């Protein structure tokens, strides 16, 4: 497993983060003149809510200021829509913000353009670029709740408790995809993290059968994982540290448990036949810079894919990054999902509709 570097920025670098702001830091290193392109616009398909605000503030705006390339952000990456665009020769997206399962599914489908590897400092990345996917950061999923409605002892803190409908009655959410969901089900059913892969798919679906009647929403759009808590439509939710941290900062009543979490890589990919491929390549390379990742993760609290970025992050942001060596964290196995995602996704969709 990866061992996070937990070093904290020295005072001068912390001051740079605070004084200069995300835009100044993300723009600190200019792109090489040799990488200049004719493209003056591009489209990023990403995720909404506070996450989109952070992407725009820490990455998109400073990129546009430095390059003059206009970036349009579209919410909710969807492989089915992307497939339709590619098959109809009407590709509308340039860069795809892909959680691990969508990234590897796109690899299987041939949806990603070959990357110009000369644009990247590959020694700085916690894992190398493979299959045309740039490892942007590590996300962390787990149990979230409203502490005003459910104080200590009244809410689940791990997946076994999340699946315990007698001790913790109420409505739940889960993502509308098998990745993360099957891992959570097996952890809830008593499988030890070290024995999780290869996933026992039949056992996972049996565990999900028990909780299915209480899943109020199979979440497609990530912000819903917290919105449903705020509106009272869900009692507990499968959400992300990167959603809870900015929500707390804005004064919302929400909390997140690190007692048991699932971590996975978020990737950036350039879409096959992207209409603005050169601009897309520049954007992905820009987003991978340590300064840019530090500014982005400072707003969210995820673990950056850049080694150098950690030393630029504040102590408060680093508190939200879990120790990947701990048994409390399961790092998703992308190699296993690459081989199995398509077949299990079909089974999951049929099961969720039955």
TrEMBL record:
Record key words, sorted: Periplasm, Signal, Transport
**What GO terms are given for molecular function?**
thiamine binding; thiamine pyrophosphate binding
Q: Which SUPFAM superfamilies match?
A: Periplasmic binding protein-like II (SSF53850)
Q: Which residues cross the membrane?
A: none
Query: Which superkingdom, per the lineage?
Result: Bacteria
Task: Give its localization.
Answer: Periplasm
User: One of this protein's GO BP terms?
Assistant: thiamine transport
Q: Which GO terms describe its cellular component?
A: outer membrane-bounded periplasmic space
Similarity field = Belongs to the bacterial solute-binding protein 1 family.
Name of this chain's protein: Extracellular substrate-binding protein
**Organism of derivation:** Bordetella ansorpii
């Amino acid at each position: 497993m990866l061992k996070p570097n937990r070093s904290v920025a020295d005072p001068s670098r912390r001051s740079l983060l605070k004084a200069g702001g995300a835009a100044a830091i993300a723009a600190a290193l200019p792109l090489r003149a040799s990488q200049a392109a004719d493209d003056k616009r591009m489209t990023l398909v990403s995720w909404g809510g506070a996450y989109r605000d952070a992407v725009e503030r820490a990455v998109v705006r400073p990129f546009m200021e430095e390059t003059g390339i206009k970036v349009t952000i579209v919410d909710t990456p969807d492989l089915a829509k992307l497939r339709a665009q590619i098959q109809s020769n009407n590709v509308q997206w340039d860069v795809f913000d892909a959680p691990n399962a969508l990234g590897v599914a796109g690899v299987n489908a041939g949806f990603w353009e070959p990357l110009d590897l000369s644009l990247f400092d590959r020694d700085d990345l916690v894992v190398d670029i493979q299959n045309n996917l740039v490892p942007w950061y590590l996300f962390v999923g787990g149990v979230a709740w409203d502490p005003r409605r459910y104080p200590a002892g009244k809410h689940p803190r791990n997946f076994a408790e999340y699946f315990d409908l007698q001790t913790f009655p109420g409505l739940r959410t889960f993502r509308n995809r098998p990745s993360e969901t099957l891992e959570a089900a097996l952890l809830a059913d008593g499988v030890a993290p070290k024995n999780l892969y290869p996933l026992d798919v039949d056992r996972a679906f049996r565990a999900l059968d028990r909780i299915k009647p209480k899943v109020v929403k199979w979440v497609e759009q990530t912000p819903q994982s917290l919105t449903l808590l705020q509106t009272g439509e869900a009692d507990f939710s499968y959400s992300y540290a990167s959603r809870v941290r900015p929500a707390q900062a804005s004064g919302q009543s929400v909390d997140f448990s690190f007692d048991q979490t699932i971590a996975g890589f978020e990737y950036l990919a350039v879409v096959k036949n992207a209409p603005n491929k050169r601009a897309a390549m520049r954007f992905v390379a820009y987003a991978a810079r340590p300064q840019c990742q530090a500014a982005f993760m400072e707003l969210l609290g995820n673990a950056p894919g850049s080694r150098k970025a950690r030393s630029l992050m504040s102590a408060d942001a680093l508190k939200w990054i879990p120790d990947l060596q701990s048994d409390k964290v399961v790092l998703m196995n992308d190699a296993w999902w690459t081989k199995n995602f398509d077949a299990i996704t079909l089974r999951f969709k049929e099961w969720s509709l039955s």
